[in-house]
C-alpha cells in the first residue's frame, strides 16, 4: 500500500476522501472537530508538495437529495482555520460547477465538494458516479478510515479509475495501531467492551477471546448477561433473544482462559433522565421500575485495578449513559484509569472510535492515550478479520 510519504504531489490534483462527518449543533457549529484536525497532515503534505487538494466527504444521513442541514458549506469556516487558507466550495460534487472549480484549481489551493450522499449513487457504490468523481483529479487519496468498511463510490469503487492510489496519514495510522493491538500486544492485554447491545459486539468479542487476557464488559449490554444468569434488572436494557448467547460467550471465555470482569454494582434510576432519582444496588438486584444507567463505585474500583495492571488496552463503548452528566461517572473513571496506565505505567492504549472516542475527547484525555481511532464500525470490522473495501481498494 502506497502512503502519502511515498508520493510527490507536485503539479497534481489530489482527490482526497476525508471523513468530515462531524457533529453540528442547531446553529451549525461544530461540537467536535477531531475528524477535521486529523486530516490536516495529509492535506498539508499535498499542498506543500505543490499539489492541490479536492476534498470529498459525506455528512449525516440525507434522505435522497440535498438538505440544508447536511450541507458541507457549514464547515468551511472551520476548514479555513484548520488549513490556514481560504477553502473553495463547490455546491455539487459532480456536474459543471464541480468540474469548473476543480479544473481551475491552482497548486496550494483546496476545494471542498458538496455532500456526496446528496446522491443515492454514493452509498450504492455506483460505478458511473464514481467515474464522474474520478475525472476531477489525477490521484486518489483515501484518508477516511471511518468509512473504509463501506463499499461506497468514493471510499472504494473509484479506486479502479486511478493508477495512483494512496493512503493518507489517518488511514495509515489507523491500520498501524490496529495491527499493534491485534498482532503485537504486550501482556497483560485487556479489552474493555461497553455500549448498548451484545448484538453489535458479538464478532469482536469472539475474536478478542483468542487474544486477550482480560475482558471487561460494561454498558447497557451487561444487563442481558445479568438477566441470563438469573439476576433482576428491572426495566434495564435487555436483548431477550441474546441471553443464551451471553452465557455461551462466558463459557467460551472460561474455556480459553480469559478472565471476564463484569459490574458488581450498578447506578440505577427511576427514569431515563439526567434528573432521575438514583440509587446504587448490587448487580442482579435492580428493583422493578428502575433501570441501570451506569456502573457503581465498587465496579469502578474493580475495573480500575484491572486496567492499571495492563500493558495493552483496547476500549470500545461507554460504561453507562455518559451523555447524562449524572451517569457519566463510570465512563470518566475508566478514561482516567486508561490515561494513568498509559502515562505512568507505559501501557499502549487504543480507543476504538464512536462513543468511546467522544467520551475520551469530552473529558479532555484525547491526547493522553496512545491512539484515538476515528472509525468505530470500521475498526471493529477490521479487528473481526473482515476485509475493508476502502483498504482493499488501496492495495
Give an account of the 3D structure:
By secondary structure, the chain is an alpha/beta fold. It folds into two domains: 170 residues, 3-Layer(aba) Sandwich (Rossmann fold), CATH 3.40.50.1260; 199 residues, 3-Layer(aba) Sandwich (Rossmann fold). It has 14 helices and 17 strands. The strands form four sheets. A six-stranded parallel beta sheet has the order 3-4-2-1-5-6. Strands 10-8-7-15-16-17 form a six-stranded parallel beta sheet, sandwiched between helices. The longest helix has 17 residues. It is an enzyme of class 2 (transferase). Keywords: ATP-binding, Cytoplasm, Glycolysis, Kinase, Nucleotide-binding, Transferase. Pathway: Carbohydrate degradation; glycolysis; pyruvate from D-glyceraldehyde 3-phosphate: step 2/5. Monomer.
CATH class annotation of the largest domain:
Alpha Beta
Mean pLDDT: 95
Spatial strand sequence of the major β-sheet:
3-4-2-1-5-6
Q: Low-confidence parts lasting 5 or more residues at pLDDT below 50?
A: none
Second CATH tier, the architecture of the largest domain? 3-Layer(aba) Sandwich
Shape: elongated
- SS field, number of helical segments: 14
Structural class: alpha/beta
> Major sheet: size, sense and barrel closure?
6 strands, parallel
CA-CA gap between termini = 5 Å
Return the domain count: 2
The proportion of strand residues reads 15-25%
Radius of gyration: 22 Å
CATH topology of the largest domain: Rossmann fold
Number of E-type strands: 17
